Amino acid sequence: MEVFVSAIAATLTTVAFVPQAIHIIRFKETRAISLQMYVAFATGVAFWLLFGFMIWNWPMIVANAITLALALSIITMKLRYG
Amino acid sequence: MEVFVSAIAATLTTVAFVPQAIHIIRFKETRAISLQMYVAFATGVAFWLLFGFMIWNWPMIVANAITLALALSIITMKLRYG
To answer: GO molecular function of the protein, one example (chains A, B) (predicted)?
Structure first.
C-alpha cells in the first residue's frame, strides 16, 4: 500500500513538469516563471536524487532524474526567453 | 547522513515555491504558468503527504503540508489572473 501511494505521488510530481515545459515551448514566454524557484527546486531535486542513490531506491532515482532534467530544461528556457 | 541529505532536499523543494508565489503576488501575471502542472503537482504532493502519514515521518508531513499550501495558493492566483 505504501509503495502504491508513493508510486502515484512520484509519478504525479514528476510528470507535472511536462505540461509546464510544453507550455513554454509553445508560447515562448516565461515572464511569470520564477528563476529563483526553479534554481532552488532543481538543487533540491538533485539532493533527492543523491538520497535515492544513498538508500538505493530505484523508483526515487528514476523519478528524480527525470524531474531534474525537466527542471533544468525549464531553467534553460527561462534564461533564453527572460 | 541520509537524514541530513533528505532534510536539505525537503527544505529546498518546499521553499522553492515561495519566490514563485511572491513573483505572482508582485506582478499579478500568470500567463507562462501551466495550470495543468500545478494541478498534477498539488495532487502528487497530497499523495506524498498521505505517504508521510502512513510511514509517520514528521519532516515529510510538515514539508509536504507547506508545499501543498503553496501550490494551492499558486493555483488560486492562476485562476484569478489567468
So the answer is: sugar transmembrane transporter activity
